[in-house]
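Exam review. A common question shows you a sequence with its structure tokens and asks you to describe the fold in words. Practice with the pair below. Do the first one on your own.
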Amino acid sequence: MRKILTILILGALIFPLSAQRKVGFAGVKFLSIPVTVRGTGLSNAYTALFGEPSCVFWNPAGLSEIQSSRALGFTYTHYIAENYLGGISYVQDYMAYGKVGIFVGYLYSPNFEVAVVDETQGPYLTGEKVNYNAFQAGITYSQKFTKLFSFGINLKALYEGYADITSCYSFAIDAGTLFWTGWKSLRVAMSLQNLGPNMKPSGKYTKYLVKEDIEKEYVDYPLPIIFRLGLAGEIVETEYLKWTISFEGAHPNDNVEVFSFGTEISYAKLLFLRGGYTINKDEGGLAFGFGILRGSIGIDYSFEDFGHLPDIHRVGLSFNF
């Protein structure tokens, strides 16, 4: 446990420095877009929360707190510029051996119009449409080693396809911890996402020069590594009412740090109201959402303000068996 905590703390110290030097240099950016609907309803202040299978996309340690023996989750997002994002996750309890599951996340970006360069006409659009596709798929394991400490890890394959022009593959690891401090309900959580080798598109492309056109190989690019540190706790907790507040700091390797604050009020474990705000964000920052849990079925919705860009709406569905 001490080794795991040491690695994550070192990551927290290293990656903020990298972000200041290399803003915007990573690829596979769909991995940086949040998938979990409850988390985005809290404006991303989610690392120290848990309970639904889609937390595998944020902090796999949170899977250890799922109470049912099996859980299945679906999420869907209509993102900016006609991009479609979603995820599927399934987790099963193996008692003393921990939680084991599988997950798939995807981004579908259709209808890019092909442009060509003609010697006489110059550049023009052909009317032909092509698509960009990307996905992550993997297995997850989460274990509650003591009453206070949980650890989770994802091993996943990555893919990006640029129409029929080129594609690339890689793999990555996510790891996370959840620690109950013992003081009331306060817990501290950390996660490290998308740690893996660079991705490099296959094949070659033509670089058009004045005197002579040349063929060149595509350049590889790193993954968008994100370190998250979160705190959460309940300020009111009765038989029917629970009020949770949370905080999160996120340190990406390709951008500046952001800090999020969120709150969730639940009534009778049936209705959940959420809201939050993120500071140091390029656009927007305000978010809110709600959830309804009826028996073994849960429905979630979140709204995220993106300032001058279109607002983001997400929906989620979960089943507990």
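Now try the second one, then compare your answer with the model answer below.
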Amino acid sequence: MRLDCAGRVLDLSHPAVMGVINVTPDSFSDGGHYLRLADALRRAETLVAEGAALVDVGGESTRPGAVPVSVDEELRRVLPVVERLARELPVPVSIDTSKPEVMREAVYAGAGLINDVRALQAPGALEAAGASDVPVCLMHLRGEPATMQWEPRYADVVAEVHAFLAERVRACESVGMARDRILVDPGFGFGKTLDHNLSLLRHLERFTDLAAGVLVGLSRKSMIGALLDAPVEARLNGSLAAAVIAAWQGAKIIRAHDVRETVQALRVCAAVQAAT
């Protein structure tokens, strides 16, 4: 399976690692680290050297309790970074946004994938993504970042998230997107309790029938911290365990902060899966 990301090919015949660059002052793990263009570029080059198959750029924090930013502010943060990385990196650049204006401008600047935590539900987002001719990732989010962790409830979290993503895939197809350019993400930590997150990870293989592939973001998240009683900077081992579990169940893209370690863990996983 290969995705055409604005002329850069993303090979999904084995799990790929998506490196993360948050051009924000308040993201939960790396907020404030890459606000300068030169710092973002150096970090991106490091991620690629460590094995990242694509780099995800975000200009608005979606951590629990995050405050939204304006379109103009998000564009100011991400466009110079996307344009520079798309020109200088050998791998695709993804834009992490829910705003149709940012989608259009970022794709014009060279982004090869749209990664939307709101699954193209914002007014105009579905049409903007459909017209972009680049792959999209649809994520499940219950509520909004500011309130999503206020006692989220599900009767059957796996079934409900699966049904939501299936509906969003159909919405994409209704505006002419082929299923082979659509990815889905169950949204670990986005409006879910620890038990919800564990159920989704345990049954992740159920999502592989929805589209071209499953993308997961588990790196350093609060579910890892809760299981290990560890702060953000001490969640590497738990993040690697979760990444291997996800890959074993068919995830095609693993979004990670610690790229080198995740790539190595996934190589071991792939070797075991390929053994006879």
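Model answer, second protein: The beta strands are 2-5, 8-11, 16-22, 54-58, 93-96, 113-116, 136-139, 182-185, 213-217, 253-256. The radius of gyration is 17 Å. Full marks require stating both points clearly.
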